[in-house]
Design goal:
alpha/beta; 6-stranded parallel β-sheet; 5-stranded mixed barrel
Length: 443
């Protein structure tokens, strides 16, 4: 591709792992001479990096594609439309047939080949075995001015939960080597990143597929030694694999945020077995007890699925009791979505969408009261805050996050004070709280 060879706009949908793929494609395109722009109307090429994890994500991806396809048909006939990511991997050939305005449909294994695809005039779909694994040599196009970046330590998943399509879209679990991850972290820090968030489909299982079996504790130790890196946050630790040595390593290294993301999904043993979660209710409770013994001040986040086939009223009541008893700091609930090709989709289910939503709302109501009480308990405490943006609220002119808050999925901290700006860390005192957000003054 020649220098100054066109303008590109990338739309990234779905999870942080998908965002990283978009950043890699943007970095490769920029290195090849393309200009990345913010407006799709002005772009010679648009890449839509799609999600297809659950039905709602599939619907959102399709809606974006169809909107852009319609605009191309009406006013942008010369524009190149590329559909990438999980939806493309899952339904590539159908998309090519049903949406002829999409010039090219490429699967998840084609991230590293994006420049070749953009150079080519080839139309149709390129869907191959999902085996791409990024490395530190892949330049990433990061959001301007951000002090936070996600870092993907592995790709794919080998857990094969009965409701999940990820192994078919992303392949079996593949861990990056720790030296390569630390090299990328050093590159990110050199670019001004101060918080690195480790992601993967199952970060607690990191390294199990490598011959040297390095493990998450070794990786944490390597990252903790990087100068100027301020915070390390870890997401997606499967309860079946979160061990004492991982939690102890998190507690021992002070750059690691006291924050445990533990997606338990359910607490009834029959449902857990049907989900193929590889853990029992007692196992989950033991892990939570372990975390609270080793890291008593850690914020605990989880995600749940309601309306799974076989979730009787008694089994759902058991889940509600678990939420009340455990008192998670942060909690998200998904209504079960039967995904084509998964074992769970073949199970008979008489739970209506309306009932699933009722159950979700009930748990979120319980969690709102718990979160409010826990947040109120932080009033008066000292908290380090990463300032992320300016606010239009004159009383609290800055918005940031404490070490207890992950971006996008948790609440934020509204900060009162002067003489700071986005990207800086400030010491604060918590002065107020609501159900999800905190209020603080710079001290």
């Amino acid at each position: 591709m020649k220098k100054n060879s066109g303008t590109l706009h990338i739309i990234s949908l779905g999870c942080p792992k998908n965002q990283i793929d978009s950043e890699v494609m943007g970095g490769l395109a920029r290195r090849a001479g393309m200009t990345l722009i913010d407006r799709p109307d002005d772009a010679d090429t648009i890449i839509i990096n799609t999600c297809s994890f659950i039905r709602s994500a599939t619907e959102e991806s399709l809606e974006v594609i169809l909107t852009l396809a319609e605009a191309k048909k009406k006013t942008r006939s010369g524009q190149k439309l590329v559909v990438a990511g999980c939806l493309a991997q899952r339904y590539g050939r159908e998309l090519t047939h049903d949406i002829p305005e999409a010039d090219l449909v490429i699967g998840t294994s084609e991230v590293g080949n994006i420049v070749r695809h953009l150079m080519s005039n080839k139309r149709g779909s390129v869907i191959t075995k999902p085996d791409f694994l990024m490395n530190a040599a892949h330049d990433r196009l990061l959001p301007a001015g951000s002090a936070t970046a996600y870092l993907k330590i592995s790709e794919g998943c080998s857990n094969h939960c009965s409701y999940c399509v990820i192994p078919s879209l992303r392949g079996e679990a593949r861990s990056r080597r720790p030296q390569d991850i630390c090299r990328e972290a050093e590159n990110l820090v050199a670019r001004g990143i101060r918080e690195i968030i480790l992601v993967g489909q199952d970060t607690a299982a990191y390294g199990r597929d490598l011959k040297t079996r390095p493990g998450l504790p070794d990786l944490i130790s390597g990252l903790d030694s990087i100068s100027k890196l301020r915070w390390i946050r870890i997401l997606y630790t499967h309860p079946a694999h979160l061990s004492a040595d991982i939690v102890e390593a998190m507690a021992r290294h002070k750059k690691v945020c006291p924050y445990i993301d533990l997606p338990v999904q359910h607490i009834d043993d029959t449902i857990l077995a049907s989900m193929r979660r590889r853990v029992t209710a007692d196992g989950i409770k033991s892990v939570i007890e372990l975390v609270r013994r080793i890291m008593p001040d850690a914020a605990l986040r989880t995600s749940l699925i309601v309306g799974f086939p076989g979730e009787s009223q008694n089994r759902f009541a058991r889940l509600v009791d678990f939420v009340r008893e455990t008192r998670f700091d942060h909690l998200g609930v998904f209504t079960y979505s039967p995904e084509e090709g998964t074992p769970a989709a073949a199970k008979p289910s008489r739970i209506s969408q309306r009932e699933k939503e009722r159950r979700r709302d009930l748990i979120m109501g319980e969690q709102a009261a718990i979160s409010y009480e826990l947040n109120r308990g932080l009033i008066g405490s000292a908290q380090e805050v990463l300032i992320e943006a300016n606010s239009e609220n004159k009383d609290y002119p800055f918005i940031g996050r404490t070490r207890r808050q992950a971006p996008e999925i948790d609440g934020v901290t509204h900060v009162k004070g002067t003489d700071t700006k986005p990207g800086r860390f400030v010491r604060t005192k918590i002065t107020g709280a609501d159900h999800y957000d905190l209020y603080a003054e710079i001290v």
